[in-house]
What we know:
Distance between the termini: 64 Å
Number of domains: 3
Oligomer: single chain
CATH superfamily of the largest domain: Periplasmic binding protein-like II
CATH class of the largest domain: Alpha Beta
Amino acid sequence: MNNLVTITDSRKPPLIELRLWRQFVTVAEELHFSRAARRLNMTQPPLTQAIAQLETTLGLKLFDRTKRSVQLTAAGAALLPEARDLLARAQALPAYARASADGEAGRLRLAFVSTVGFDLLPRWVRAFREQHPKVQLELIEATGDVQLQALERGEIDAGFILHSPGFAPPGLAFQRIARESLVVAMPEQSELAGKDRLTLKELLEQPLVIFPRRILPSLYDAIFTMYHAAGQLPRVAQEAIQMQTIVNLVSAGLGVAWVPESVRQFQRAGVVYRSVSAGKPPERAVGRAVSAQNAQAAQSEVPECETSLVWSSANVNPVLSRFVAFIGQAPN
């Protein structure tokens, strides 16, 4: 017969002191009140009263007692491992509190853009977890605009964002961690795909697949400035948010895309990546004029991009301080 009694009560459940759970566990291990009392450095009558109090509070029997034996009921046997776990966790709390204050334990909500996930993030996460095994890392993939909003609302602790060189997120602390060139992703069937390196002039009139300006305004503007400096208005064929989606659209033949060099690691059938140079200013030959567009294209520069870790300076999470220090020393 099951001795567990289900009690329906709208009131809050009673709080039970750890002392009572410790006494229950000791009696359950000894199955003898006198021996349990000696282990607890107390006399038997108060221990018997404490167990009776615990049973009354719970509304069920934990032990079947006779003059000759003490045995756990089914309910008592079910509670024993839970009570042991409760006591163990309570005993570990002071050490955990000290570790949390030092940033050696706790939680870090970390957002990242997809480009960081190709190479840097996996290495950093693995190394940080090895150094700080008690820290729970909550990883969230999000575009830069979403991250900035989440930081403002306190929904994340820090984030890796992509931007053009020199960009500084307003009102946030940041640490630049990587700088890389933009390369062009193009359909494999393009007539330009056979070249190992391209000039900007060769790409000016190609349809463009690009991210919306709202998610990465500084880099979007840098790309458009490159086209405008070359005397060309970009022919935007399609917009997409994630870099993987942009590359997939390139493979479908919708156009070319400017992507960070780290995206080369995302291999997609039907897509090739090529470096692009601005080109040398053409020499004027006798009797030949150089077109204004060619001259402008030769003077344009292919922009670079940077990745930074950003966070609110008002965030007092000790784990964040640990992570910022770790990233400052981590190899790129």
